[in-house]
């Protein structure tokens, strides 16, 4: 099926909020309540669009995945865990709709993020994921990202990963 990966627009806000909320509900169903259980609001998506670049992956007209790329360090990242980097890029809020998980869409999104990072002349991609069964640590490790540290931020156990470009 056709796959496109483009910047999201304000026309996508409702669909992105629904996608994030469905993913949170699915994680909660599978792993119980945790920091991953939050609903995403339209206001939250609009804020993300103001503070980072939000991308939407589509199959046909349906948004099947999303992620954000930011040049500014997010609050939960402690840079002391990462390799030296002159121009890091932060990958945030990646989500694949539950019905499409396990079909390679997340891997395709990471490949697109890497292409964008190179276009933006970033020298690394940094991210965090929950250090719990609901986290995506094994996925990022399988995708070539290196674990660089573990910490807890606001009672949420995290694993930091990076990809050097």
Count of folded domains: 1
Number of helices: 4
Distance between the termini: 29 Å
CATH architecture: 3-Layer(aba) Sandwich
CATH topology: Aminopeptidase
Shape: globular
- Stretches with pLDDT under 50, minimum 5 residues: none
* Cα-based radius of gyration, to the nearest Å: 15 Å
The fraction of residues in strands falls at: 25-35%
Structural class: alpha+beta
Structure explained in plain terms:
Strands 1-2-3-4-5-7-6 form a seven-stranded mixed sheet. With 165 residues, it is an alpha+beta fold. Helix 1 (13-31) crosses helix 2 (42-51). The protein has helices at 13-31, 42-51, 105-119, 137-142, and strands at residues 4-7, 53-59, 62-70, 88-96, 124-130, 146-153, 156-164. Helix content is 30%, strand content 32%. It has a single domain, classed as Aminopeptidase (3-Layer(aba) Sandwich).
What's the layout of helices and strands?
Elements (H helix, E strand, L loop, with lengths): L3 E4 L5 H19 L10 H10 L1 E7 L2 E9 L17 E9 L8 H15 L4 E7 L6 H6 L3 E8 L2 E9 L1
Parallel strand pairs: 4-5
Antiparallel strand pairs: 1-2, 2-3, 3-4, 5-7, 6-7
Properties at a glance:
165 residues, alpha+beta, Aminopeptidase, 7-stranded mixed beta sheet, 4 helices, 7 strands, globular
How would you sum up this structure in a few lines?
The chain has 165 residues and is α+β, with helices and mostly antiparallel strands. It is 30% helix and 32% strand. It has one domain: 3-Layer(aba) Sandwich (Aminopeptidase), CATH 3.40.630.30.
């Amino acid at each position: 099926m056709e796959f496109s990966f483009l910047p999201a627009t304000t026309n996508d806000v409702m669909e992105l909020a629904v996608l994030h909320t469905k993913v949170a509900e699915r994680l909660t169903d599978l792993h119980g309540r945790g920091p991953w259980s939050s609903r995403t609001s339209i206001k939250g998506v609009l804020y993300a669009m103001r503070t980072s670049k939000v991308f939407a992956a589509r199959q046909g007209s349906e948004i099947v995945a999303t992620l954000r790329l930011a040049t500014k360090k997010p609050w939960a990242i402690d840079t002391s865990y990462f390799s030296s980097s002159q121009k890091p890029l932060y990958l945030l809020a990646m989500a694949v709709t539950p019905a499409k998980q396990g079909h390679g869409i997340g891997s395709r999104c990471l490949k697109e993020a890497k292409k964008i990072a190179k276009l933006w002349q970033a020298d690394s991609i940094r991210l965090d994921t929950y250090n719990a069964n609901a986290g995506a640590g094994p996925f990022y490790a399988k995708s070539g990202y290196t674990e660089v540290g573990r910490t807890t931020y606001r009672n949420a156990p995290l694993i930091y990963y990076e990809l050097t470009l």
